[in-house]
Amino acid sequence: MEIQIKADLLGNNEDQALINRTRYNQHGVFCINVMGSPGAGKTTLLERTIDMLKDKISIAVIEGDIYTAKDAERIEAHGIPVVQINTEGACHLDAPMVNKVLDRFELEKLDLMIVENVGNLVCPVEFNTGEHIKVAVLSIIEGDDKPLKYPLIFRESEAVVLNKVDLAPFCDADIEQMKQDLRSINPNINIFSVSCRTGEGLEAWSQWLLSETNKPR
Ligand code: MG
Ligand code: ZN
């Protein structure tokens, strides 16, 4: 019975996700769903990425958070449209939540919509919000065992940003092992080793995102 309920919920979510995806496509908007643990550096990565790309493409952000608007305030300071979704306890975004805020954007003027999901390595990946691709952010200080312990998010993601690589001398994470494990889970995954603090690796990441945004689809 419980499995049936879950299947129905996901079924409705998939219908709504398709509606969201169609709206993005109608307006030529590329949408990414950024997922990762609390503290992985999702918002900081967005801030750096926005600064690098906002003169080249038109970007907007949907921020998912359980209670606060702290991340949306940080994004707003970079001068791009942002809408906060407070999930009031829910540990992930779903397609109906995203649908409710899409009218608050001028989609016809956008090239890239970035959805920052609720900080959580587990269930956001199970809820399609209508995005074109998923991107995982994993900081090396979370531990090099995380890819194998939480494989689904990495299997479903087109890219993983391995953040905080500047901290490698201060933690025991084996970055090469992390990359090897990520590729064993998803041989096609694009891996970007970055430090949002020093800027290392951000050029390669932002160039890749720019080329994905500009791909005809
Ligand atoms: Mg955040
Ligand atoms: Zn959840």
Q: Can you put this structure into words, describing what you see?
A:
With 217 residues, the protein is α/β, with parallel strands linked by helices. 40% of the residues lie in helices and 18% in strands. It has 8 helices and 7 strands, in the order αβαβαβαββααβαβα. The protein has helices at 2-26, 42-53, 70-76, 95-102, 146-149, 151-156, 175-185, 202-214, and strands spanning 30-36, 59-65, 82-86, 112-116, 133-139, 159-163, 190-193. The radius of gyration is 17 Å and the shape is globular. The model has no long low-confidence stretch (mean pLDDT 95). Zinc ion is lined by residues 91-92, 120, 123. Magnesium ion binds next to helix 2.
Query: Averaged pLDDT, please?
Result: 95
Strand order of the largest sheet: 3-2-4-1-5-6-7
What characteristic shape results from the CA principal axes?
Answer: globular
Largest beta-sheet characterization: 7 strands, parallel
Helix content: 25-40%
Note the run of SSEs as H and E: HEHEHEHEEHHEHEH
Radius of gyration: 17 Å
Bound molecules: magnesium ion, zinc ion
